């Protein structure tokens, strides 16, 4: 049975609402893709899905699921645009995932899954908001020493601190010794995973002004 235009509008409106809710969380976190982007992604995906359903209703060969597969492919380009280099690492992976999820919600709403779409949004919000304090709790006891020796005047520490701020880690005890234009900083990094620390150490060692980096002892 063909769907009416009024029902099409309702599905698109539902997708826009759910996308806006998801985008609000990203907006509060001051991410690159926020309220408008997530709303547009969900709404656009729903329009494509609704159009596919409407066309399939009047044809025996049309397959609306092919529309969904093209949306999944296309949203990858938008998600990649949300990932940027911040300091020594890449950030925006979660935002890219929420854009992809926003498209999925839009498709679900466009296909008429009125319960699945909001239920999926609730699960996503639970994982994004509810898991944040759990993540901090799990990492609260992780303290890793780090020593960097480098030539002063090259902004060596700026990307380090930007990276730590982006991932929610902090610098504990810190000491600085300078001798003849060479600095040696010793500090403790709190709340940073071991793999992320390895990436930071590798990035620091790649800088020309860095003389030596003494990383934390290997984890057994």
Helicity, in percent? 55-70%
Structural class estimated from helices and strands? alpha+beta
Our Rg estimate from Cα atoms comes to: 23 Å
Number of helices: 7
Percentage beta strand: 15-25%
Q: How many strand units?
A: 6
Alpha-carbon distance between the two ends: 62 Å
Sketch the major β-sheet.
Answer: 4 strands, antiparallel
Structural description of this entry:
- The chain is of the alpha+beta class.
- The protein has 2 domains: 5-137, no CATH class; 143-214, ACT domain (Alpha-Beta Plaits, 2-Layer Sandwich), CATH 3.30.70.
- The chain is 59% helix and 18% strand.
- The chain contains 7 helices and 6 strands; from the N terminus they run αααββααβαββαβ.
- The chain has helices at residues 5-28, 35-57, 65-81, 93-110, 116-139, 157-167, 194-205, and strands at 84-86, 89-91, 143-151, 170-179, 182-190, 210-214.
- The strands form 2 sheets. It has a 4-stranded antiparallel beta sheet, with helices on one face. Strands 1-2 form a two-stranded antiparallel sheet.
- The protein is elongated and about 80 Å long.
